[in-house]
Amino acid sequence: MVELKTDASIDAMYETGQVVAQALTAVRKAADVGVSLLELDEMAKEVLNAAGATSPFLGYRPTFAPTPFPAVICASVNDAIVHGIPNGYRLRDGDLVSIDCGAHLGGWAGDSAISFVVGAARPADTRLIETAERALAAGIEAAVVGNRMGDIAHAIGTVCRGAGYGIMEDYGGHGIGRRMHEDPPVPNEGRPGRGMPLRHGMVLAIEPMLIAGGGDAYRTDPDGWTLRTTDGSRAAHTEHTVAITQAGPRVLTARD
């Protein structure tokens, strides 16, 4: 069931979203050669704690997971697409890093992700990340009252496929509200004019996941969480929490 949020609830979700934005900004600023993924997780945890927020990631255990997630961020490096567990790995020059972070505050959830390169970026990685950001922007632009879910999916998929990238199969965005994952699912590829009508008060986490090699398949690490490209190519992940309103899409996790 899809819950339509009131304008007051959307305002409250914006406050949560800004905590997520602050955490991602802090992590991006701290990420440098020699910094460990665990240190980045601690940085995000400090931001959440300072805001009085909790993490919807920490302790989260969906049906596929063998163990609860042990951190407040997902840190996925190079060929890891999503759900990477922060560990003692220290960042190296040229690493492509995707950070996903969420927060709970005042009873509402927020969720967002960024991809970036540490140190000197290869042109191929820059293009991959820029395309992921364009795909996210296209999906947000299509998130308007009167469109359908397929319009968001088509907008994202058109950008990704047009650049020659794969789209991670079986995964996409989701509704968000009191819980991090709610109905409806938000595909990253689809047909325009199809699917659920978009209505004022829907709040969606829109999140393209691109694979540089062009394929859509992935594999799961022994940890049961980290999902990697099957061909070893690099991946990028971007995400925003977006409210659909009569005035147009409102990005609740927008970063300065």
- Which structural category fits the helices and strands? alpha+beta
DSSP helix fraction = 25-40%
Gap from first CA to last CA: 33 Å
- Largest sheet strand order: 7-6-8-13-14
**Portion in strands:** 15-25%
Can you describe this structure?
- This protein is α+β, with helices and mostly antiparallel strands and 256 residues long.
- Helices cover 28% and strands 23% of the residues.
- It contains 4 helices and 14 strands.
- The strands form 4 sheets. It has a 5-stranded antiparallel β-sheet with strand order 7-6-8-13-14. Strands 1-3-4 form a 3-stranded antiparallel β-sheet.
- It is globular, with a radius of gyration of 17 Å.
- The protein starts with 6 loop residues before the first helix and ends in a 5-residue tail after the last strand.
- Its cofactor is Co(2+); Zn(2+); Mn(2+); Fe(2+).
- It catalyses: Release of N-terminal amino acids, preferentially methionine, from peptides and arylamides.
- InterPro entries: Creatinase/aminopeptidase-like, Pept_M24, Pept_M24_MAP, Pept_M24A_MAP1.
